[in-house]
Amino acid sequence: MEFDSAAIAKFCQKHHITRMLHYNHPSRHGACQRQVVDFVVDFAPGHMPGYFDMFGAPGLIGMEEELAGLLGKKQAFMQSSTGIPEGRKKALADSLKKGYTIYQDASAG
Question: How far is 48 from 15, CA to CA, in rounded Å?
Fold first, then answer.
């Protein structure tokens, strides 16, 4: 899948995302895989969003909707790298190894 690098960078900077990794979720196949995209993201310290939109700031759900629209997909799922339970990390290990970084904030180190 190809991404508009400038649009992704703008999205990430707007939402304090320091790294975004795209991967193919192992449970998605066929049409579902073409309509849905999966990402693991790192947020800047102190900028981890809540799940829902609150106090004028988009929550994770709002960010996912915005990202899906930006990419022209039905759905986009974002998982914070700090929020993946250990058991799920093991289940996703192969997929995450094959994933690739589509955004990295150069100042994030």
Answer: 9
pTM of the predicted structure, to 2 decimals: 0.81
The region, left, alpha or beta by phi > 0 then psi within -120 to 50, assigned to residue 55 is left
For residue 108, give both structure tokens: 């994030």
Enumerate residues 6+ apart whose C-beta is below 8 A from 83: none
HEC per residue, 94-109 = HHHHHCEEEEECHHHC
Give pLDDT tens digits for 57-105.
778 889 999 999 999 888 888 888 777 777 777 777 777 888 889 999 9
